[in-house]
Amino acid sequence: MQLFDTARQEVVPFEPRGGQVGIYVCGITPYDSAHLGHAFVYHVFDVLNRRFRDAGLTVRSVRNVTDVDDDILRVARERGVDFRELADEQVRLFDHDMAEIGLLAPDVEPRATEHVEEMVGWITRLVDGGYAYAVDGWVFFDSGVYPDYGRLSRLDHATMIELSRERGADPDDPRKRHPLDFVLWQASAPDEPSWPSPWSDGRPGWHIECTVMSTGALGHPVDIHGGGNDLIYPHHESEIAQAEAGGVAPYVRHWTHVAMVNLDGVKMSKSLGNLVFVRDLVKRVPGAAVRLLLAAHHYRVSWSYEDAEVEVAAMRLRRYLAAMQGGGTIGHEAALRHKQRFFERLDDDLDTPGALEVLDAIAQELAGGAEDAGPGTEGQQLLGRLLGVLGAEPGAVTA
Ligand SMILES: [Zn+2]
Q1: Which residues have C-beta under 5 Å from ligand 1, the single-atom ion?
Q2: C-alpha 236 to ligand 1 mean position (Å)
Q3: In angstroms, what is the span from residue 26 Cα to ligand 1's centroid?
Q4: 382 HSE (CA, 13 A, CB side)
Q5: For the domain bounded by 286-389, which CATH number is listed?
Q6: Residue pLDDT, tens place only, 135-155
Q7: Which of 146, 207, 227, 365 has a CA between 20 and 30 Å from the CA of residue 122?
Q8: Would you place residue 375 in the very low, low, confident or very high pLDDT band (cuts 50, 70, 90)?
């Protein structure tokens, strides 16, 4: 498998170790519904997972839940419910949506609130090592003593400052020694959930969660770590810094990031409200069709959602179904050739659009086959199996 690595900025071979692969993908902050941008990210890691499993590897997949966070607390307050209740409800809805589009459930789904003690331990290590400092019950990572900050994103200092401001950090916070220092621990207000720590009754920062939970579930180095490409900076950049400063280096072997989905030329995001929800799509077409819609886009190229794509994907699924249920057949040699091409495409940096072209060719040949061999021919079985590797097996995924 050749896979682009964000840290090296090139497509490189991914080598599993001892027949095993650990995958950690950053999960949701559960306060709102899953949209197509989420689905695109998680479908990519699902295809990767399925491809590895199909190749006989043992995969351990981990997707965390950031179940305490300023946004969750805000929405819970607005709705007058406990933040845990809101998070539980949203996780249930998210899991349901993802199951509708055939995502394999993660092997481990750690929740931030269940690992606070380990986070306090890690932060303590950073403070003791001189990589973090406490002010007024808050703890910040000291970017000034970690010269490699910016290595993953390859951004210069000024751009990082600008982006951190855009993405919710406050580079002008007077408590910070350097503008890029980030929060490891924050004191909670009296009406907010809190956990005891040496610095205050408070809660962890977002970045520390993933360093602690990824290494906790997978050890280190983590084979593949990723998420949407909007997480490269500051989230993953900060994860590396606190991991390495905490004595875990190398932290990750391979970084995989997925491009953003746009609507009318603007990134789909909760803050802008320009969202297409998975739950609405699966009311219109089978989940397998949604998977084909997603697979039609290469994971490293951002794209703009067009409503017409839904029908195109549904038609594609109908063609595949007709080919699988008709009486067409293709020769053994042709089947082998198609199979080889399909995996060549997938193994070339997860070229799912190229893999779909192979499935189109199989379906077309099956449809054009004159013989009436009945269902269950080699070509039909192959089409079903390959659709399964893309998580789009008709029947297994229903709406
Ligand atoms: Zn994360």
Answers
A1: 26, 210
A2: 7
A3: 4
A4: 27
A5: 1.20.120
A6: 999 999 999 999 999 999 999
A7: 227
A8: low
Q: Measured in angstroms, how far is the CA atom of residue 336 from the centroid of ligand 1?
A: 40
**What separation in Å is there between the alpha carbon of 251 and the centre of ligand 1?**
13
Question: Residue 171 in contact with residue 161, Cβ under 8 Å?
Answer: yes
Residue appearing with tokens 């350097």? 178
Spans of all domains in the chain: 18-263, 286-389
- Per CATH, the homologous superfamily of domain 18-263 is HUPs (3.40.50.620)
Which residue bears the tokens 């351990």?
60
Interval 26-71: pLDDT, tens:
999 998 888 999 999 999 999 999 999 999 999 999 999 999 999 9
Tell me how far apart the alpha carbons of residues 233 and 143 are, in angstroms, rounded to a whole number: 14
Determine the Cα–Cα distance for residues 222 and 256; give it in Å rounded to an integer. 12
The alpha carbon of 43 and the centre of ligand 1 are apart by a number of angstroms equal to 17
Cis check for the bond before 147: say yes or no (omega within 30 of 0).
Answer: no
Bridge partners (DSSP) listed for residue 59: 21
Half-sphere exposure of 46 (CA within 13 A, CB side): 24
CA of 334 to the centre of ligand 1 (A): 43
